[in-house]
Hints:
Layout: H1 3-12, E1 20-25, E2 30-41, E3 55-62, E4 81-93, H2 94-100, E5 108-113, H3 117-132, E6 139-150, H4 154-168, E7 174-179, E8 184-189, E9 192-197, E10 200-203, E11 206-211, H5 219-227, H6 229-249, E12 255-263, E13 267-277, H7 282-288, E14 297-298, H8 300-311, E15 321-327, E16 333-338, E17 343-346, E18 351-360, H9 366-383, H10 418-422, H11 428-436, H12 443-446, E19 463-468, H13 473-483, E20 487-492, E21 509-512, H14 525-540, E22 544-547, H15 549-557, E23 561-578, E24 581-594, E25 599-602, E26 605-611, E27 618-622, E28 626-629, H16 641-652, E29 658-659, E30 665-666
Parallel strand pairs: 19-20, 19-21, 21-22, 22-28
Antiparallel strand pairs: 1-2, 1-7, 2-4, 3-4, 3-15, 5-6, 6-14, 6-18, 7-8, 8-17, 9-10, 9-16, 10-13, 11-13, 12-13, 15-16, 17-18, 23-24, 25-26, 26-27, 27-28, 29-30
Helix pairs in contact: 3-9, 4-9, 5-11, 6-13, 14-15
InterPro entries: ADC_synthase, Anth_synth_I-like, Chorismate_C, Class_I_gatase-like, GATASE, TrpG/PapA_dom
Protein name: anthranilate synthase
EC number: 4.1.3.27
Amino acid sequence: MNLLHHLIATVVAGADPGPFALVRRDGAAALDVFTGLPRTVSRLADIPLPPGPAGPRTLALVPYRQITERGFACVDDAAPLECLVLSGHVRVPLTEVLAALPRTPTPVRDAAFDLSDETYAEIVERVLRDEIGRGEGANFVISRSFVGTLAGPALPAALAALRRLLHGERGAYWTFLVYTGTRILVGASPERHVSVEDGLVMMNPISGTLRHPDGAADRESLLRFLADPKEIDELYMVLDEELKMMATVAEQGGQVIGPYLKEMAHLTHTEYLLAGRGSLDVREVLRETMFAPTLTGSPMENACRVIARHERRGRGYYGGVLALLGRDDAGRQTLDAPILIRTAEISPAGALRVPVGATLVRHSTAAGEVAETHAKAAGVLAALGLRSASAPPVTGPADTGPAGAAPDTGPAPFGAGPAAELRLAEDPAVRAALAARNHRLAPFWLEERTPGAGVLPELVGRRVLVVDGEDTFTGMLTHQLRALGLTVRTRPWGDALDHGRFDPTDADLTVLGPGPGDPESPTDPKMTALRGVAERLLAAGHPTLGVCLGHQLLAGRLGLSLHRRSAPYQGLSREIEIFGAVRRVGYYSSYTALADADEVVTGYGSVRLARDAADGAVHALRGPTYAGVQFHPESVLSQDGMAVLTDLMRWLLPTPTVPTRRGTPEPHTSRHPG
C-alpha cells in the first residue's frame, strides 16, 4: 500500500494518520504527498531549512498575525506559525488520487456568514468614506467569514472537499489539504504570493473579479469586465504595491510581465507576473513580502491599521501563506508560497471557517463588494456541499463537482473546462484589451533593464537621503534614483523625532517621501515631525524634493492652502503639463495644494507652480532649491516618471561649477527660472 492509500485508509478507519499534506501545484498531472513532524516556531527566521539532497524540506503555515514581525498592526489571535519538517514525499498521479479520495461531503450545521450582508455593506461604506476618502490609502481588503460546524469527522470531510476541488476547480496555483494535528486547511488558491528558484524571485499580483457562478464567462461579459475602470484600477494598485515589495527583495526591483487572464470555475481574474534576481535568504523574502496587497491594501502599513480598526477580530490564516521551503541540486534555497485564500480552516472538532474578502477602491459600491465575497466563497463552499445565501444551488447528487460542474468522472486536466473550450484568452479582442492595459504604464518597470544604461554622468556620486513617510513607494523611488547614477539611502520618518541624531541635510539632496494621512493634522506625530523636517530643509536652503505627502508638506510650509479632494485621486493616471512639458503621471492622494496663480512669492523665494486649469490644484512646484510633485513619478502608472525625475534632478542638482582660465567660477549648467 502506497503512502496516499495508507493515509486515506487510516482516516476512513477513524484513526489519526499524523500530520500530512496533499498538494497539486499549478496544474500538475500528479499530486505531492508529504508527511512530517510538526513544529511550532515564533518567527519566520526560525522556520527550519535543514541541509540535504535537492527537494522540499519544510512546509510552513504562516498566519496573518505574523505581520507583527514587521511592526504592523493586527488583532492578535495567537494563531501559531506551524511547520511540517518533511520526512516523506511521494508523487501520485491525479487519476489515482481521485479514485482513492472519499466522495461524499459531510453535512454542515449552522452555516452562515459571521457578518450579515447588511453589516458587511455598512463596513464597506465606512471604509470608503472614512479611510479612502480621507487619504488613509488607495485600497483596502476587508474580510468576512462563512462559518459552521461539521456534522461528522473533520478529516474525511476535508478529503472529500479536496476531491471536489481537484475535479471541479481550474486555474488554481495550489489545490491542497494540510493537516498538522491541530488544524486542517483545504482550498484552491489562485495566487502565488512569492517564489524563489535559481535566484529568480517571482510574485503574482491578481486582482479584478468577473463572476460567472453558472459556468464560464461569455465573450461580451469578459470584454466589459476588461474595460471596467474599477477592475483596471484594482489591478494597477496591487501591481504598484507588489512592485514596492520587489524593490526590497530583488536587486534591481521587479520587471512587470503580462497582464494575463486567470480563469477559474466560478471567477475570472486579471493578473501580472513580477520577476527579479535576488540573493536574500528565502525566510527573509517571506518577511519582507508580508503580506500580499491583494489581501491587505496599500500603503501596506496603514492598511494593516485599517483592517484592525474595521474587522476587529483575528484573521487566522486568511491572507497568510503556505510556504514550501527546500533546496535545489546546487544547494540553493527554494521557496514556493501561495496565498491562503479560497481556503477552509477546519478544527479537528469540526469547527469550519471560510474567510473571504473584497478589495475596496474609490469606485467600489457596497452591493458589488458584498456580491464579490459570495462569489469568492462559492468554490470552497461547493466543495463542502454548501452554498452561500445568494449563490446558485449545488445541483445533482453528492458525487458532483462544484456548482455547475460536469459529473465527476475523472480529473479535470489543467486548463480544461468551458472557458478553455471557448479559448477566450486567445480571442483577438480579449488579447487586445489585455495588451491595452500596458500602453500608458511606465516603461521603466515593463522593460528589462541593463545596469548602468540610464546613468547620467553628472549625477554619479551625488548622495540622496529619502525620508520615508510610511509608504514603501520609497523603495521603487530608490531604484529609479540609483538607475540615474545617484547613491541613495532611506530613513524612516520616526528618526526625525531624534533631532540630535537626525540631520536631514546630510546628503546632496533630501527627498520627503510619500505616505498616508492628513498633512495638516495637529495631533499626528508623523505629520508634526515631517513638518519640522520640511522647515529645517527650507531654512537651510538645502536641495529638497517632496513627493505626494512630501509635496503637500512643502506646499504648506510655503504658505499654500491644502485641501481634501471631494473625490480621491487614488490610483489615477492623468496627462498634465509640468513646466512646459506634457507628462502622463499616476496619483495616489486625497489632498492637494491650491493656488490661484502660476507664481507666488514666499519667504523662501519665488515659487513656480504647475496648476490644474480647472480647480487650481497644484501638480508640481519649483523654487530656488526645492521642488515638489503631487503625483508619484515612481509609480507604474507614471508613464513619464523617469523623464520627470531626470528633469527634477537636473534642476535640484545642477552640474557643479568649474573654474575658468582666470579663476572665475563658471557653471556647466544653470537653473533657468522658466
